[in-house]
Amino acid sequence: MIALAVAVSLVLACAEPEKPLNEPGEKVYDIRGTILVRDTGDNTIRLEHETIPGFMEAMTMDFSVRGARVAALPPDGSRVDASLHVTDSGFWLTGIRKVS
Predict the structure, then answer these.
(1) CA–CA separation, 45 vs 37, rounded Å?
(2) In a domain? residue 70
(3) Which residues sit opposite 77 in a β-bridge?
(4) What is the pLDDT of residue 18?
(5) 6 pLDDT exceeds 90?
(6) ∠7-12-16 over CA atoms, to 5°?
(7) DSSP letters along the chain, please?
(8) Number of structural domains in the chain
(9) Residue 68's domain spans which residues?
(10) C-alpha radius of gyration, the chain, whole number
(11) For residue 81, is it within any domain?
């Protein structure tokens, strides 16, 4: 029992800390698309998204997800809305929710 507690403590201590939902200087865009596939190891989804006015044409891309585990998101094939956060060094999604 003690060995299990020590092992769990070591795993948690070595786990990557959660990244913040927001970062200074970011731009945030509304995004809508369809979840095609997810990677629970990297906590990413592949999203076939619509045009993001003033930023990007419609395409299919992989996105990191912050603030949620991709395993808990709507199933693959679901249409979703989210917030796309963009900085000079990266981009990620938050607030992913299923739409009709």
Answers:
(1) 6
(2) yes
(3) none
(4) 73
(5) no
(6) 140
(7) -HHHHHHHHHHHHHSPPPPPS--TT-EEEEEEEEEEEEETTTTEEEEEE--BTTTB-SEEEEEEE-SS-GGGSPPTT-EEEEEEEEETTEEEEEEEEE--
(8) 1
(9) 20-98
(10) 16
(11) yes
Residue 2 lies in a domain: no
Task: Identify the pLDDT of residue 12.
Answer: 46
For the record, the structure tokens of 35 come out as: 């979840």
Average pLDDT on 86-94 reads 94
Mean pLDDT value of segment 14-43: 84
In a domain, 7, yes or no: no
Q: Which two tokens mark 3?
A: 């060995």
CATH number at residue 75: 2.40.50.320
Closest alpha carbon to 97 in 83, 82, 77: 82
